[in-house]
Amino acid sequence: MKSPLAPGIRLITSFSRDSWYRGFILFLTFIFYTAYHLSRKPISIVKSELHRNCSTVIRPADLNVTNNATWCDWAPFDQDNYQTLFGVLDNCFLIAYAIGMFFSGIFGERLPLRYYLSFGMLMSGLFTALFGLGFYWNIHSLAYYAFIQVMNGLVQTTGWPAVVACVGNWFGKGKRGFIMGVWNSHTSVGNILGSLIAGVFVSTAWGMSFIVPGIIIATTGILCFFFLVEKPEDVNCTLPQHHGDQESGEAEPLLQNSPHVDRTINSVISTDSPEVVEDHTQAISFCGALSIPGVVEFSLCLLFAKLVSYTFLYWLPLYISNVAHFEAKAAGDMSTLFDVGGIVGGIMAGLVSDYTGGRATTCCFMLVAAAPMLFLYNYIGQRSLGTTVGMLLVCGGLVNGPYALITTAVSADLGTHESLRGNSRALSTVTAIIDGTGSIGAALGPLLAGLISPTGWNNVFYMLISADVLACLFLSRLVYKEAQGWCGRASRVRGFKEI
């Protein structure tokens, strides 16, 4: 009697070839952008090591010092204006990132994504490592670290438009909110891993807190060069539906069982030569992308949402260290809870927006809820360990949920908007405009935090709450439009029942 097929093999062959490729691309791009965020995080962890409270540090007996108050600090951050200097470093990166992002999308539409991403990750690895080498080369020049931050900000712009364009090429609209909500957890996973890796070395040799992440992102760049597939047609896979999916169903959702699958291992990986499909559509112009309905509103909303998110990204460990009096490593580890909440918030935002069809309403609701939670975190968040953990998780979910939804599912929706009449080369430019505008807020947030924090952390949180409220206001027209659509559908359903 012939033995049945092994359960593991039955599982493998139960999914179509298209589904395996989609899952592989989703996993690969997840790894890529995790590495991007992983390499950005060390600066926020190392800040509390570059300027410390030297009165609490045991001084080596053989060390000859001239200033007892700053002997353990790393010049030039041993001065009274160290918070301003940290703000300079943050903004060198973020302003370069914001400016570069508007051009990155244009390049991303015109260059092969595989080459573009590989180059960006290799250069990001180089400049991240060069920052850490300043420790071993004993460099105390602010200009050196500022220059490295500017260059790193520019090369890091290669990541987001390219990975969103790649995922948008492979997935249709129907389940995009949930799929991209899960996928966008790479931001928080990268922040968490970056914090933990940097925390391992921060108290002994902070240079390694940059060098190790630099090596990791450079390695993923090599992985990208050898394995990334930009479009389904490059490997003879089925093209996704970008319009009408919510009415007719997703054409090829992730890991959909196929009734017409060849039940052999060879069906998973095809050895056929891919048919070359040429795309004759022209890349969309900058003004053309701005004219897509919703791009301007979501871009301005993201400006303020990202202002809040990146202020936490760059200043939360220092805030915890100053207010709760944690050591640098403990503060960095505690700050990862904000990103854990962000993972859940991004997934929930995607699920709710898929179910309701209201991307703007979902974002607005979470932003409204975030404002009072930020106020409460500042006033009661440090009273006990349990309160700190709970408030960080909730604030992370409410702050990062809208940010995640706008930069992923919303950007992909607008980049494949029906007004484009099938132009597949708009996605990277639309993504770059939205994230580039948001990156202006990402630059403003840490800068304002650096300027305001000397007057008290309360004022920093008032600034963050105001930004949340402004983000809601920019979505008001779209929320009203979505509400009108729901009311119209409800009226049609009632009329149908009466008939």
Radius of gyration: 24 Å
In round numbers, the mean pLDDT is 81
Taken from the alpha-carbon principal axes, the silhouette is globular
- Please bin the fraction of helical residues: over 70%
Low-confidence stretches: 244-280
Task: Supply the number of helical segments.
Answer: 19
N-to-C span: 61 Å
| Class from secondary-structure proportions | mainly alpha
Largest sheet, in brief, is:
none
- Beta-strand content estimate: under 5%
Number of strands: 0
Order of helices and strands: HHHHHHHHHHHHHHHHHHH
Architecture blueprint of SSEs:
Blueprint: H1 7-13, H2 17-40, H3 42-50, H4 82-110, H5 113-136, H6 142-156, H7 159-170, H8 176-183, H9 186-201, H10 208-227, H11 245-248, H12 286-290, H13 295-323, H14 328-356, H15 359-380, H16 385-415, H17 427-452, H18 457-474, H19 476-498
What does this structure look like?
The protein is mainly α and 499 residues long. It is built from 19 helices and no strands. α13 runs antiparallel to α14 (328-356). The termini are far apart.
Short descriptors:
single chain, 499 residues, mainly alpha, 19 helices, 0% strand, globular
Brief description of this entry?
With 499 residues, the protein is an all-alpha fold. The chain has helices at 7-13, 17-40, 42-50, 82-110, 113-136, 142-156, 159-170, 176-183, 186-201, 208-227, 245-248, 286-290, 295-323, 328-356, 359-380, 385-415, 427-452, 457-474, 476-498. Helix 2 (17-40) packs antiparallel against helix 10, helix 9 packs antiparallel against helix 10 and helix 13 (295-323) packs antiparallel against helix 16.
